[in-house]
Prior knowledge:
Residues 5-306 form the FAD-binding domain. One of its GO terms (molecular function) is FAD binding. It holds the Pfam family FAD_binding_3. It contains 13 helices and 16 strands. The protein is α/β, with parallel strands linked by helices. A hairpin with a 2-residue loop joins β7 (118-124) and β8 (127-133). The chain is globular, with a radius of gyration of 22 Å.
Amino acid sequence: MNDRYDVVIAGAGPAGAQCARDLVARGYDVVVLETEAEAEFPRQSNKSTAGTFPSMMAAFGIPDDVVMQFTDSVVLESPMEHYVREQSGAVLEFADFKRFLVNDGRDDGAEYRFDARVTAPIMEGGEIVGVTYNGDEEVYGDIVIDATGPSAPLAKKLGVVDLKRENHAIGIEYEFEGIDIDRPGFADLRDAMMLRLDHEIAPGGYSWIFHTGEDTAKVGLCYIQNGSHDQYSRDDFTIDDYLSHWLETDPRFQDAERIEGKQHRGSAHIQAPGALHTDRFMAIGDTVPSLDPLWGEGINKCMQSGRAAAATADSCLKYDSVEPTAENLEVYETLWHRDVAPNAKSRLLMTQLLYLAPNDRYDRLMQDLQRLDDDTLAEANKGDPLAIARLLELEDAPLLARFAKQQLDLDLGSLLSIGR
Protein backbone atom coordinates (compact mmCIF):
# COMPACT_ATOMS: atom_id res chain seq x y z
CA MET A 1 0.00 0.00 0.00
CA ASN A 2 1.33 3.44 -0.96
CA ASP A 3 2.34 5.63 1.99
CA ARG A 4 3.31 8.85 0.16
CA TYR A 5 0.93 11.24 -1.61
CA ASP A 6 0.74 14.78 -2.80
CA VAL A 7 -2.11 15.49 -0.38
CA VAL A 8 -3.45 13.61 2.64
CA ILE A 9 -7.02 14.49 3.67
CA ALA A 10 -8.54 13.46 7.01
CA GLY A 11 -12.33 13.19 6.75
CA ALA A 12 -14.66 12.18 3.90
CA GLY A 13 -17.45 14.68 4.54
CA PRO A 14 -18.51 17.29 1.97
CA ALA A 15 -15.40 19.44 2.54
CA GLY A 16 -12.86 16.63 2.41
CA ALA A 17 -14.51 14.75 -0.44
CA GLN A 18 -14.92 17.89 -2.55
CA CYS A 19 -11.32 18.87 -1.93
CA ALA A 20 -10.29 15.39 -3.11
CA ARG A 21 -12.48 15.70 -6.23
CA ASP A 22 -10.86 18.99 -7.20
CA LEU A 23 -7.32 17.77 -6.53
CA VAL A 24 -7.56 14.53 -8.51
CA ALA A 25 -9.15 16.48 -11.37
CA ARG A 26 -5.89 18.44 -11.44
CA GLY A 27 -3.87 15.22 -11.57
CA TYR A 28 -2.60 14.96 -7.96
CA ASP A 29 -2.19 11.79 -5.89
CA VAL A 30 -4.67 12.06 -3.02
CA VAL A 31 -5.65 9.79 -0.15
CA VAL A 32 -8.67 10.38 2.10
CA LEU A 33 -8.77 8.78 5.55
CA GLU A 34 -12.26 8.23 6.98
CA THR A 35 -13.09 6.96 10.47
CA GLU A 36 -16.26 5.08 9.54
CA ALA A 37 -16.41 1.65 7.96
CA GLU A 38 -17.20 1.77 4.26
CA ALA A 39 -20.16 -0.60 4.56
CA GLU A 40 -21.81 1.77 7.07
CA PHE A 41 -20.72 5.11 5.59
CA PRO A 42 -22.15 7.58 6.36
CA ARG A 43 -24.05 6.27 9.38
CA GLN A 44 -22.53 8.13 12.33
CA SER A 45 -21.49 11.13 10.24
CA ASN A 46 -24.84 11.55 8.48
CA LYS A 47 -25.58 14.73 10.42
CA SER A 48 -26.83 17.46 8.10
CA THR A 49 -30.36 18.66 7.44
CA ALA A 50 -29.05 18.79 3.86
CA GLY A 51 -30.91 21.86 2.68
CA THR A 52 -29.18 23.55 -0.23
CA PHE A 53 -29.80 25.82 -3.21
CA PRO A 54 -29.32 25.64 -7.00
CA SER A 55 -26.04 27.58 -6.85
CA MET A 56 -24.37 24.76 -4.91
CA MET A 57 -25.81 22.03 -7.12
CA ALA A 58 -24.58 23.74 -10.28
CA ALA A 59 -21.21 24.89 -8.96
CA PHE A 60 -20.17 21.41 -7.83
CA GLY A 61 -21.92 19.23 -10.41
CA ILE A 62 -24.29 17.50 -7.97
CA PRO A 63 -26.80 15.21 -9.71
CA ASP A 64 -30.54 15.44 -9.13
CA ASP A 65 -30.75 11.80 -8.06
CA VAL A 66 -29.38 12.64 -4.57
CA VAL A 67 -32.29 15.08 -3.99
CA MET A 68 -35.20 13.98 -1.81
CA GLN A 69 -37.35 17.01 -2.63
CA PHE A 70 -36.98 20.16 -4.68
CA THR A 71 -38.43 23.14 -2.82
CA ASP A 72 -39.92 26.45 -3.93
CA SER A 73 -39.72 28.58 -0.80
CA VAL A 74 -38.02 29.30 2.51
CA VAL A 75 -40.32 29.94 5.48
CA LEU A 76 -39.27 31.72 8.68
CA GLU A 77 -41.50 31.13 11.70
CA SER A 78 -41.76 32.74 15.12
CA PRO A 79 -44.16 31.65 17.88
CA MET A 80 -47.09 33.62 16.40
CA GLU A 81 -46.01 34.83 12.95
CA HIS A 82 -44.30 33.65 9.79
CA TYR A 83 -42.63 35.04 6.68
CA VAL A 84 -42.41 33.34 3.28
CA ARG A 85 -39.70 33.99 0.73
CA GLU A 86 -39.88 32.45 -2.73
CA GLN A 87 -36.54 30.76 -3.25
CA SER A 88 -35.77 27.52 -5.06
CA GLY A 89 -33.89 24.89 -3.12
CA ALA A 90 -33.28 21.19 -2.64
CA VAL A 91 -33.38 18.86 0.34
CA LEU A 92 -30.70 16.24 -0.19
CA GLU A 93 -30.61 12.64 0.92
CA PHE A 94 -27.40 13.40 2.76
CA ALA A 95 -26.09 9.84 2.77
CA ASP A 96 -26.54 9.52 -1.00
CA PHE A 97 -24.93 12.92 -1.48
CA LYS A 98 -21.84 11.99 0.55
CA ARG A 99 -21.50 8.63 -1.22
CA PHE A 100 -21.73 10.40 -4.59
CA LEU A 101 -18.84 12.69 -3.66
CA VAL A 102 -16.72 9.71 -2.61
CA ASN A 103 -17.52 7.61 -5.67
CA ASP A 104 -17.02 10.50 -8.07
CA GLY A 105 -13.60 11.24 -6.60
CA ARG A 106 -12.67 7.58 -6.71
CA ASP A 107 -13.62 7.36 -10.36
CA ASP A 108 -11.06 10.08 -11.07
CA GLY A 109 -8.31 8.42 -9.02
CA ALA A 110 -8.69 9.48 -5.38
CA GLU A 111 -7.83 6.74 -2.88
CA TYR A 112 -10.13 6.26 0.11
CA ARG A 113 -9.21 4.33 3.24
CA PHE A 114 -12.16 3.65 5.50
CA ASP A 115 -11.92 2.38 9.08
CA ALA A 116 -9.01 4.81 9.35
CA ARG A 117 -9.17 7.01 12.45
CA VAL A 118 -6.60 9.80 12.27
CA THR A 119 -4.95 10.37 15.64
CA ALA A 120 -1.97 12.73 15.32
CA PRO A 121 0.32 14.64 12.98
CA ILE A 122 3.76 13.31 12.07
CA MET A 123 6.25 16.14 12.57
CA GLU A 124 9.72 16.67 11.13
CA GLY A 125 11.68 19.87 11.67
CA GLY A 126 8.66 21.55 13.22
CA GLU A 127 6.45 20.86 10.16
CA ILE A 128 3.72 18.32 9.56
CA VAL A 129 4.76 15.74 6.99
CA GLY A 130 2.04 13.11 7.48
CA VAL A 131 -0.42 11.59 9.93
CA THR A 132 -0.78 8.52 12.08
CA TYR A 133 -4.05 6.59 12.04
CA ASN A 134 -5.41 3.51 13.78
CA GLY A 135 -2.67 3.72 16.35
CA ASP A 136 0.54 2.97 14.44
CA GLU A 137 -0.35 3.26 10.73
CA GLU A 138 1.37 6.13 8.92
CA VAL A 139 0.83 8.00 5.67
CA TYR A 140 2.83 10.96 4.31
CA GLY A 141 1.98 13.92 2.10
CA ASP A 142 3.40 17.20 0.86
CA ILE A 143 0.24 18.86 2.22
CA VAL A 144 -2.12 17.60 4.95
CA ILE A 145 -5.72 18.75 5.25
CA ASP A 146 -7.97 18.32 8.31
CA ALA A 147 -11.65 17.93 7.32
CA THR A 148 -12.72 15.98 10.41
CA GLY A 149 -15.20 18.50 11.79
CA PRO A 150 -15.26 19.62 15.44
CA SER A 151 -13.08 16.70 16.60
CA ALA A 152 -10.18 18.35 14.70
CA PRO A 153 -7.42 16.01 15.94
CA LEU A 154 -4.78 17.53 13.66
CA ALA A 155 -5.81 21.18 13.75
CA LYS A 156 -6.02 21.16 17.56
CA LYS A 157 -2.60 19.55 18.04
CA LEU A 158 -1.04 22.00 15.59
CA GLY A 159 -2.66 24.93 17.42
CA VAL A 160 -4.55 26.07 14.33
CA VAL A 161 -8.03 26.07 15.92
CA ASP A 162 -9.13 26.87 19.47
CA LEU A 163 -12.70 25.65 19.84
CA LYS A 164 -14.54 27.13 22.85
CA ARG A 165 -17.22 25.19 24.72
CA GLU A 166 -19.44 28.26 25.06
CA ASN A 167 -19.58 28.42 21.27
CA HIS A 168 -20.47 24.75 20.82
CA ALA A 169 -23.67 24.15 18.87
CA ILE A 170 -25.44 20.79 19.06
CA GLY A 171 -28.29 19.51 16.93
CA ILE A 172 -30.66 16.60 16.56
CA GLU A 173 -32.96 15.64 13.68
CA TYR A 174 -35.51 12.91 12.94
CA GLU A 175 -37.34 12.13 9.73
CA PHE A 176 -41.12 11.68 10.03
CA GLU A 177 -44.13 10.63 8.04
CA GLY A 178 -47.72 11.60 8.78
CA ILE A 179 -46.95 15.31 9.25
CA ASP A 180 -49.72 17.84 8.55
CA ILE A 181 -47.67 19.86 6.08
CA ASP A 182 -50.40 22.44 5.34
CA ARG A 183 -52.00 22.84 8.77
CA PRO A 184 -54.59 25.67 9.09
CA GLY A 185 -53.17 28.51 11.15
CA PHE A 186 -49.59 27.76 10.06
CA ALA A 187 -47.60 28.49 6.93
CA ASP A 188 -48.00 26.10 4.02
CA LEU A 189 -44.84 23.96 4.15
CA ARG A 190 -45.41 22.04 0.95
CA ASP A 191 -42.19 22.18 -1.07
CA ALA A 192 -40.61 24.42 1.56
CA MET A 193 -37.72 24.58 4.01
CA MET A 194 -38.89 26.14 7.30
CA LEU A 195 -36.73 27.60 10.08
CA ARG A 196 -38.37 28.55 13.39
CA LEU A 197 -37.10 31.01 16.00
CA ASP A 198 -38.76 30.07 19.30
CA HIS A 199 -36.95 29.74 22.64
CA GLU A 200 -39.62 27.35 23.92
CA ILE A 201 -38.41 24.85 21.34
CA ALA A 202 -34.76 25.78 20.76
CA PRO A 203 -33.49 28.22 23.43
CA GLY A 204 -30.65 30.22 21.93
CA GLY A 205 -31.06 28.49 18.57
CA TYR A 206 -33.60 27.45 15.96
CA SER A 207 -35.69 24.49 14.81
CA TRP A 208 -36.75 23.34 11.37
CA ILE A 209 -39.13 21.38 9.18
CA PHE A 210 -37.81 20.50 5.71
CA HIS A 211 -40.46 18.96 3.47
CA THR A 212 -39.22 15.79 1.78
CA GLY A 213 -42.37 14.79 -0.16
CA GLU A 214 -46.05 14.00 0.50
CA ASP A 215 -46.48 13.93 4.31
CA THR A 216 -42.80 13.40 5.16
CA ALA A 217 -40.22 15.87 6.46
CA LYS A 218 -36.95 16.30 8.31
CA VAL A 219 -37.62 17.79 11.75
CA GLY A 220 -34.95 18.97 14.16
CA LEU A 221 -33.45 21.68 16.29
CA CYS A 222 -30.09 23.18 17.17
CA TYR A 223 -28.82 25.56 19.83
CA ILE A 224 -25.55 27.03 21.00
CA GLN A 225 -24.54 26.33 24.59
CA ASN A 226 -23.84 29.96 25.45
CA GLY A 227 -25.36 32.83 27.46
CA SER A 228 -28.43 33.08 25.22
CA HIS A 229 -29.19 29.41 25.76
CA ASP A 230 -28.66 29.72 29.51
CA GLN A 231 -31.08 32.66 29.67
CA TYR A 232 -33.96 30.83 27.99
CA SER A 233 -33.34 27.15 28.71
CA ARG A 234 -34.89 24.80 31.25
CA ASP A 235 -32.51 23.31 33.78
CA ASP A 236 -33.95 19.81 33.44
CA PHE A 237 -34.20 19.68 29.62
CA THR A 238 -31.75 18.05 27.21
CA ILE A 239 -31.84 18.63 23.47
CA ASP A 240 -33.87 15.42 23.12
CA ASP A 241 -36.39 16.78 25.63
CA TYR A 242 -36.84 19.96 23.60
CA LEU A 243 -37.50 18.00 20.43
CA SER A 244 -39.99 15.77 22.26
CA HIS A 245 -41.68 18.87 23.67
CA TRP A 246 -42.10 20.33 20.18
CA LEU A 247 -43.46 17.08 18.81
CA GLU A 248 -45.98 16.84 21.64
CA THR A 249 -47.23 20.44 21.48
CA ASP A 250 -47.26 21.32 17.76
CA PRO A 251 -50.49 20.07 16.11
CA ARG A 252 -48.67 19.47 12.84
CA PHE A 253 -47.08 16.43 14.47
CA GLN A 254 -50.26 14.97 15.97
CA ASP A 255 -50.24 11.92 13.69
CA ALA A 256 -46.52 11.92 12.85
CA GLU A 257 -44.43 8.77 13.18
CA ARG A 258 -40.66 8.51 13.09
CA ILE A 259 -39.11 6.77 10.10
CA GLU A 260 -36.90 3.94 11.33
CA GLY A 261 -33.18 4.58 11.12
CA LYS A 262 -33.54 8.26 10.19
CA GLN A 263 -32.02 9.97 13.21
CA HIS A 264 -29.10 12.37 12.93
CA ARG A 265 -26.99 14.21 15.50
CA GLY A 266 -24.33 16.78 14.84
CA SER A 267 -22.28 19.61 16.29
CA ALA A 268 -20.28 22.64 15.23
CA HIS A 269 -18.61 25.65 16.78
CA ILE A 270 -20.04 29.11 16.19
CA GLN A 271 -17.22 31.59 16.62
CA ALA A 272 -14.85 33.75 14.63
CA PRO A 273 -12.05 31.56 13.26
CA GLY A 274 -8.45 32.16 14.14
CA ALA A 275 -5.84 30.74 11.81
CA LEU A 276 -6.90 28.37 9.05
CA HIS A 277 -3.47 27.06 8.07
CA THR A 278 0.17 26.63 8.95
CA ASP A 279 3.18 25.09 7.19
CA ARG A 280 2.01 22.25 4.90
CA PHE A 281 -1.43 22.22 6.54
CA MET A 282 -4.97 23.57 6.06
CA ALA A 283 -8.19 23.12 8.05
CA ILE A 284 -11.44 23.03 6.07
CA GLY A 285 -15.18 22.50 6.51
CA ASP A 286 -16.56 22.26 10.05
CA THR A 287 -13.03 21.84 11.42
CA VAL A 288 -12.97 25.63 11.06
CA PRO A 289 -15.52 27.32 13.35
CA SER A 290 -18.73 28.20 11.54
CA LEU A 291 -20.06 31.74 11.52
CA ASP A 292 -23.71 31.61 10.63
CA PRO A 293 -25.71 28.46 11.39
CA LEU A 294 -29.08 29.95 10.50
CA TRP A 295 -28.36 31.59 7.16
CA GLY A 296 -24.99 30.12 6.21
CA GLU A 297 -26.16 27.05 4.23
CA GLY A 298 -23.49 24.84 5.72
CA ILE A 299 -23.13 22.31 2.89
CA ASN A 300 -22.16 24.99 0.41
CA LYS A 301 -19.71 26.56 2.88
CA CYS A 302 -17.99 23.19 3.41
CA MET A 303 -17.79 22.56 -0.32
CA GLN A 304 -16.45 26.06 -0.97
CA SER A 305 -13.75 25.68 1.69
CA GLY A 306 -12.70 22.34 0.18
CA ARG A 307 -12.45 23.96 -3.24
CA ALA A 308 -10.45 26.89 -1.87
CA ALA A 309 -8.00 24.50 -0.19
CA ALA A 310 -7.62 22.49 -3.41
CA ALA A 311 -6.87 25.64 -5.41
CA THR A 312 -4.35 26.70 -2.79
CA ALA A 313 -2.61 23.31 -2.80
CA ASP A 314 -2.45 23.43 -6.58
CA SER A 315 -0.83 26.88 -6.48
CA CYS A 316 2.10 25.33 -4.59
CA LEU A 317 2.32 21.78 -5.91
CA LYS A 318 2.35 22.67 -9.59
CA TYR A 319 5.70 24.45 -9.18
CA ASP A 320 8.70 22.39 -8.06
CA SER A 321 10.32 25.50 -6.62
CA VAL A 322 7.38 26.51 -4.39
CA GLU A 323 7.21 24.90 -0.96
CA PRO A 324 3.82 24.73 0.82
CA THR A 325 4.95 26.96 3.65
CA ALA A 326 2.51 28.96 5.76
CA GLU A 327 3.38 32.03 3.72
CA ASN A 328 2.64 30.31 0.41
CA LEU A 329 -0.59 28.80 1.74
CA GLU A 330 -1.80 32.26 2.81
CA VAL A 331 -3.95 32.36 -0.32
CA TYR A 332 -6.30 29.88 1.37
CA GLU A 333 -7.16 32.42 4.09
CA THR A 334 -7.76 35.04 1.40
CA LEU A 335 -10.08 32.75 -0.56
CA TRP A 336 -11.87 31.62 2.61
CA HIS A 337 -12.65 35.15 3.75
CA ARG A 338 -13.61 36.22 0.23
CA ASP A 339 -15.68 33.25 -0.95
CA VAL A 340 -16.63 31.12 2.06
CA ALA A 341 -17.37 33.69 4.77
CA PRO A 342 -17.27 37.29 3.56
CA ASN A 343 -18.04 39.93 6.20
CA ALA A 344 -17.44 37.28 8.82
CA LYS A 345 -17.37 39.58 11.84
CA SER A 346 -20.65 41.38 11.11
CA ARG A 347 -22.42 38.12 10.24
CA LEU A 348 -21.28 36.54 13.49
CA LEU A 349 -22.52 39.53 15.48
CA MET A 350 -25.85 39.37 13.65
CA THR A 351 -26.19 35.70 14.52
CA GLN A 352 -25.39 36.26 18.20
CA LEU A 353 -27.84 39.18 18.43
CA LEU A 354 -30.55 37.15 16.72
CA TYR A 355 -30.37 34.34 19.26
CA LEU A 356 -30.40 36.78 22.17
CA ALA A 357 -33.72 38.35 21.13
CA PRO A 358 -36.88 37.28 23.04
CA ASN A 359 -39.81 35.50 21.42
CA ASP A 360 -41.98 38.61 21.06
CA ARG A 361 -39.15 40.27 19.12
CA TYR A 362 -39.13 37.30 16.76
CA ASP A 363 -42.83 37.95 16.08
CA ARG A 364 -42.07 41.58 15.26
CA LEU A 365 -39.16 40.50 13.06
CA MET A 366 -41.54 38.43 10.91
CA GLN A 367 -43.84 41.45 10.61
CA ASP A 368 -40.88 43.67 9.67
CA LEU A 369 -39.75 41.23 7.00
CA GLN A 370 -43.18 41.33 5.40
CA ARG A 371 -43.05 45.11 4.97
CA LEU A 372 -39.41 45.24 3.85
CA ASP A 373 -38.19 44.18 0.42
CA ASP A 374 -36.53 40.79 0.02
CA ASP A 375 -33.19 42.46 -0.68
CA THR A 376 -33.00 43.65 2.94
CA LEU A 377 -32.91 40.10 4.28
CA ALA A 378 -30.50 38.99 1.56
CA GLU A 379 -28.09 41.86 2.24
CA ALA A 380 -28.34 41.42 6.02
CA ASN A 381 -27.48 37.76 5.48
CA LYS A 382 -24.32 38.92 3.68
CA GLY A 383 -23.38 41.05 6.71
CA ASP A 384 -24.24 44.46 5.26
CA PRO A 385 -24.40 46.85 8.26
CA LEU A 386 -27.06 49.11 6.70
CA ALA A 387 -29.34 46.15 5.96
CA ILE A 388 -28.88 44.84 9.51
CA ALA A 389 -29.72 48.32 10.82
CA ARG A 390 -32.98 48.32 8.84
CA LEU A 391 -34.05 45.23 10.78
CA LEU A 392 -33.63 47.04 14.11
CA GLU A 393 -36.20 49.19 15.93
CA LEU A 394 -36.04 51.91 18.59
CA GLU A 395 -37.50 49.38 21.03
CA ASP A 396 -34.37 47.26 20.54
CA ALA A 397 -32.23 49.63 22.66
CA PRO A 398 -32.40 47.42 25.81
CA LEU A 399 -31.62 44.32 23.71
CA LEU A 400 -28.64 46.06 22.11
CA ALA A 401 -27.39 47.19 25.52
CA ARG A 402 -27.62 43.63 26.84
CA PHE A 403 -25.86 42.37 23.74
CA ALA A 404 -23.06 44.92 24.16
CA LYS A 405 -22.59 43.85 27.79
CA GLN A 406 -22.50 40.20 26.75
CA GLN A 407 -19.80 40.95 24.17
CA LEU A 408 -17.81 42.96 26.72
CA ASP A 409 -17.99 40.09 29.22
CA LEU A 410 -16.79 37.66 26.56
CA ASP A 411 -13.90 39.94 25.59
CA LEU A 412 -12.88 40.38 29.23
CA GLY A 413 -13.08 36.64 29.79
CA SER A 414 -10.79 36.06 26.83
CA LEU A 415 -8.27 38.59 28.10
CA LEU A 416 -8.26 37.05 31.57
CA SER A 417 -7.72 33.57 30.16
CA ILE A 418 -4.78 34.88 28.12
CA GLY A 419 -3.38 36.55 31.24
CA ARG A 420 -3.45 33.25 33.14
